[in-house]
Write a structure and sequence with these properties.
With about 130 residues, this protein is of the alpha+beta class. It is built from 3 helices and 9 strands, in the order E-H-E-E-E-H-E-H-E-E-E-E. The two termini are about 25 Å apart.
Length: about 130
């Protein structure tokens, strides 16, 4: 079976990004391996390898990549974090200092609120409606 396993997110600092994704969003650090060129292979994920795609936290190299930090999708919501308990995760993330850009909404497809990551990338926290 095929699935998207990893998505790259360009960051300015490995350790700062790891802290945000693990502490504020509750992701787990899967790998943090130094590479010969001085970079690191850093992977975080919100669940287990069987249930979710991970993020490669890639430190920007050069001005072109630095210019894209926080705006990798042109201001659109580009990442979707599903939850099985919206109220719990919204409250935990708010207490951890995550910036929500709107109040929670209850749509036909589920409960949702847009938040920003450490760099300004927009995410949906979403509890899908079950049938």
């Amino acid at each position: 079976m095929r699935r998207i396993a990893l998505v790259t997110l360009v960051v300015d600092d490995y350790d700062k990004a790891i802290r945000f994704y693990t502490d504020a969003l509750g992701f787990r650090l899967v790998e943090d391996t130094p590479r010969p060129d001085g970079s690191r292979w850093v992977v975080v994920e919100p669940g287990t390898a069987d249930t979710s795609a991970g993020l490669v936290l890639a430190r920007a190299k050069g001005e072109d990549q630095r210019a894209r930090i926080g705006d990798q999708t042109g201001g659109r919501v580009g990442f979707f974090l599903h939850t099985d308990d919206f109220a719990r995760d919204h409250a935990r993330m708010t207490a951890a200092g995550v910036t929500f850009l709107e109040e929670p909404r209850h749509e036909a497809y589920g409960s949702v609120a847009v938040f920003q990551d450490l760099y300004g990338n927009r995410w949906d926290l979403l509890q899908p409606t079950t049938d």
